[in-house]
Description:
The chain is of the alpha+beta class. The protein has helices at residues 43-49, 74-94, 118-127, 147-157, 161-168, 184-190, 204-215, and strands at 2-4, 23-32, 54-57, 63-67, 98-100, 138-144, 173-174, 177-178.
Amino acid sequence: MATAVSMNSSDPRSGNGIEQFTVGVEEEFVLVDPATGRPSLTSTAVAAAASGIEVQLELSKCQLETSTPVCTTIPALRDELGRARLLAAQAAARAESRLLALGVPLWLPPTRSLTETPRYRRMAEWFGELTEQVICGCHVHVCVPDREVAVQVSNHLRPWLPTLLALTANSPITGGSDTGYASWRHLQWSRGGRPGAPPGIEGGRQILEAVEMKTG
Length: 216
């Protein structure tokens, strides 16, 4: 996803008035029992054991998210991703669980494994059984100069999304069975009603209308 941020010559991320793009990544992981491979509801313990990285709790207690700092080069981002994964895996081991990078868990977690926070309780009230699903993703946040550029980036990416989906499909198995789909994560995520690319739009003003259509 692209995050639009206005930048100018006074911005510390800019040099001599030249805009500099930055990037950061959030990764969501499944926590599993090291002996059985089944989801382990240990996210709170893993987060408490984590040190030196930023972690967040996710919708299910068997999920954990890491976030890199804002990076200005791809090599720096790669190093930060490797560091985050290593430290998160070590924290999981200290909490007697294992960290897996999966679109969906191979086995379904126990029912009612919702993380008890006000935000997730509200989601459960709004979306009911949809909040029982466990979906993990890798979110790439790219800083762009302004909303107009964000619109153009979105328009450019839209035709490539099916190809990207095919290249990144990684979740054919759930509940211990082959679903018959290369990306079961995509099908589960699509049930929410709001996922998907925005429509093609011509300028920054229309993006507000598109957002209102998606969220309203």
